[in-house]
Amino acid sequence: xxxxxxxxxxxxxxxxxTRGGDILNVGFGMGLIDTAIQSYGxxxxxxxxxxxxxxxxxxxxxxxxxxxxxxxxxxxxxLMPQLCQYDGIFFDTYGEFYEDLRDFHAYxxxxxxxxxxxxxxxxxxxxNAFFHVTYCQLVALELxxxxxxxxxxxLPVKDCLDERTWLGVKKKYWQLDTYLLPVCQTQDEDET
Length: 192
What we know:
Blueprint: H1 6-16, E1 22-26, H2 32-38, E2 44-49, H3 52-60, E3 69-73, H4 76-79, E4 86-91, H5 98-105, H6 108-111, E5 112-120, H7 129-145, E6 148-156, E7 178-186
Parallel strand pairs: 1-2, 1-4, 2-3, 4-5
Antiparallel strand pairs: 5-7, 6-7
């Protein structure tokens, strides 16, 4: 995660916090989305983080002492049985693959409350517009098979990114001018 993503994380937080209630974030990173989630005053805010150094940083920064925050250390794959249902869910784990995202999606019908909103960092194939849109459609089709509708809200990012953004970074992981923010929700009975 890098600072240029802050406006994206704020947009994700706005999407998943529209109902208020209980929020789950899988992957703390720099805490950009969690800071944005807190600005909406959720009833509860659960954060799953698997990286030991990031987890230690979270605790040092006071995230474990916030009244409505529960910090859970571990791999999301191992923690599924102890999770409840949420009004909003965000998924952004570093170094995982599409198969991991797909595996997480299999849990959504149990994790997301009816009418809840789910979103994820949409970095699939972010160096090729054709394949990026193809992945978006694949995810939408797979989520539809589980009863979710998915919309992609276009957010321009071209002005956020210049060559200075990538100084010292080994691999430029985003090369597109527009970010397609996924907003996923349970389909109404009359939509299916």
